[in-house]
Structure formats: structure tokens, C-alpha cells
Amino acid sequence: MSSSIKNESLSAGATHPRSKIPDWRWKGTLTVLILTTIINGYDVSNVANIQPSLYTAFGNITLLPWISLSFSLAVFAVLSLSRKILYCFDMKWVYIVSIVIFMVGAAVAGSASNFPAVIVGRIIMGVGGATIYQSNLTCVAVFATPDETPRLFGLLSAFWAIGLVIGGPIGSALASNKHTTWRWAFYMNLPWAGLSLAAAIICLPFKYLGPDIPMISRLKAIDPLGIAFNMAVQILFALALEFSGPVWNWSSGAPIAVW
Q1: Same domain, 168 and 241
Q2: 8-state DSSP, 205
């Protein structure tokens, strides 16, 4: 990896954003990216096998599908916004705040006393997870050399798949253990996210990607109306798929409105 950095620096006149980053710091950054990618994959599937335990604890089977849907839906709904945010603020601070938001969501879901609280926690996790995911892709695009970029994108995809595969068994094992229960399927995120947060503070380089304009101009460029419409489409589509039939009668006005 060090030889490719040197070659890239020579060919680009040492203007590559990585040219001023020590090798240890780049390796630490990659470690952060891998850890958070695994966590994001884990939280897609970690609730697959804990839903019987959640139903036993809280009842209300109509909300059960939202335990798994809420995280992924929040990720997709916030992706476009997170991309805009990365061009408004320094990437390092966006990353740090995103991990903190994710940890808050994990704590809320793990300590929940009812179904809505679990869902809210999962939504908060999804908001943080979306910005973490977008930041990971942006970090690779900005700091990796052209030779490294496709390999690193493939590597992150592989680690996301690993997190997806291990999420179900880990969640099941925690839910079936009387000492941990289903709550630790969410609490499990906290130590790993905390480790990622500490490593990000130490290793992640500062990088502002947007134009050098006043903050108010940056915020206006977010296009809140477009973001709101984008979120609304995804949320309404999910509501239509989940509630039409089981909750809303097909002949009522609610499914017609959301479709």
C-alpha cells in the first residue's frame, strides 16, 4: 500500500489529499471504516430472530414489522440529506456526530419499555447509520488512490455482508440468554461504536469538501424541499406496503392516500 501511495504522489505532484496523512493514520481510518460498515450490516439483520422475544415483552403484533423496517427505511430516507451535509461541514465532525447519534439510538432501543420506543431508537440509529455509510464512501473516494478505490469499495461491501450474516445469529444468541436478553442485540452496538468513535477522533483526517462560501449559503444549498419530498416518497411507500390490508382496509381512504 505504501508503494502505491508513493507512486501516486510522484505522478500527481504530491497533490493527492493523502500525501500529508501519515501511514498509521490512514490505516486507523480504514479500521474505523471497516468497523462501522460491519455495525451497519449487523443492524439490518440483528432483529430477525429477536422478534418473538419483543412480542412476548410488548405484544402489539401490528408494529412488529417496523422493528426490522425502521432502521433500513431511515437509512434510505436520510442518504440524500447526509450527502448534502458532507458538503456543509467538515467530514470528520460529521462522522463523529453520526456515530454519537447512532449510539444514542442504540441506547434508546436497548432501554425501551414499549414497541414505539424500540422503533424510535431504530430510526435514530438509521439516521446515524446513513451518514456513517455516506461518509465511508466519501472518505474512500477522497483519500484512496485510483488503484485502491475499487478494492476498498469491494472490501467495505464484503464487510457489510459479514455484518449482515452475523447479525441474526448474534441477536438470537443474546435474546435466548436470560442474562443478556433481546436488549443486548442493541446494546452490543455501544462498545464497538464507542471504539470506532475513539479511533475516528484520533485517526480520521479533517477534510471540508464544499465550496468556500458562508454557512448560510451552504445550508440553502441543501434543498430542504427536495430532501423532504425524497423522504416522503420512501416513507409513504413503506407505510403503504406494511399497513394496507393488515391494518387499513383496502376499501378505506388511507391506503389510497399513501399509494
Answers
A1: no
A2: P
Q: Is residue 8 situated within a structural domain?
A: no
- Cell readout for 254 is 388511507
Q: How many domains, in total, are found in the chain?
A: 2
Element containing residue 117 per DSSP (H, E) = helix 115-143
C-alpha cell of residue 173: 444468541
* Rounded mean pLDDT, 21-42: 94
pLDDT band at 6 (very low <50, low <70, confident <90, very high): very low
Rounded to an integer, what distance in angstroms lies between the CA atom of residue 65 and that of residue 79? 22
For the chain, helix (H) and strand (E) counts, in that order, are 12, 0
User: How sure is the predictor about 252, in pLDDT bands with cuts at 50, 70 and 90?
Assistant: low
Residues 59 and 105 in one domain: yes
User: How far apart are alpha carbons 158 and 155 in whole angstroms?
Assistant: 5
Q: Same domain, yes or no, for 129 and 256?
A: no
Please say whether the beta carbons of 35 and 196 come within 8 A: yes
Are 164 and 45 in contact by the 8 Å Cβ rule? The answer is yes
Identify the sign of the CA torsion 158, 36, 79, 48.
positive
State the residue range of the domain holding 30: 22-208
**72-90 per-position pLDDT tens digit:** 889 988 988 898 898 889 9
Residue type, 196: S
Q: What is the mean pLDDT of residues 35-59?
A: 91
Cell of 192: 464497538
